[in-house]
Write a structure and sequence with these properties.
The protein is α+β, with helices and mostly antiparallel strands. The protein is built from six helices and three strands, in the order ββααααβαα. The chain has a three-stranded antiparallel sheet with strand order 2-1-3. Strand 1 (about 1-10) and strand 2 form a beta hairpin.
């Protein structure tokens, strides 16, 4: 799995930027920079291409020098490109929120969104428990916690046979437990 930086902007939403090596930047350097709207990098790459075609002679030795220079340039862009892209987004007002591990940027955004929902739910539950439990006597608090545990499924003795009917998938809460 790869690591991704999650960057958010109040108006433009959330983006996931991979940390480390970029294969698209390696194979499609100039086009990758244009796609990412990294205009200065794209202009620099285009200038390098033009200057190398003008100043490097069209001989075997010149071709070798050109290939080595382009390989070095592509390696540099591949190693630093994602970092440069994240820096560009930060200059545009994006702020780093988290770093997550995922297979691709879409999964990284989903992991981040799920963690945000979970933390919001935890805060909401904590606030609700705090207001309701403060008013209850001590023995009622324990009773309420036991009821909450049963409702969460911690005390259930589900053996996966689907419950009372004896048929079905067992877990009916909508969460897949594989």
């Amino acid at each position: 799995m790869a690591s991704f930086r999650i960057l958010t902007h109040p108006e433009h939403g959330t983006r996931a930027v991979k940390i480390g090596w970029s294969w698209p930047a390696f194979f499609f350097g100039l086009f990758w920079a244009l796609y990412k709207r990294m205009w200065l990098l794209a202009a620099s790459l285009f200038g390098f291409i033009v200057l190398s075609s003008v100043f490097i002679p069209a001989t075997m030795e010149g071709q070798l020098i050109s290939n080595v220079l382009f390989l070095g340039l592509n390696l540099t862009i591949s190693m630093k490109g994602n970092q440069w892209y994240a820096s560009l987004l930060e200059t545009q007002g994006y702020q780093e929120q988290a770093q997550v591990s995922a297979r691709n940027p879409d999964d990284a955004l989903a992991v981040h969104a799920n963690s945000q929902k979970a933390s919001a739910a935890d805060i909401r539950d904590h606030e609700q428990r705090g207001t309701h439990e403060q008013d209850l006597p001590v023995d009622h608090r324990d009773e309420q916690e036991n009821r909450r545990d049963r409702n969460d499924g911690r005390d259930d003795e589900d053996n996966g046979d689907g419950g009372a009917g004896g048929k079905g998938g067992g877990n009916t809460s909508g969460t897949f437990i594989g």
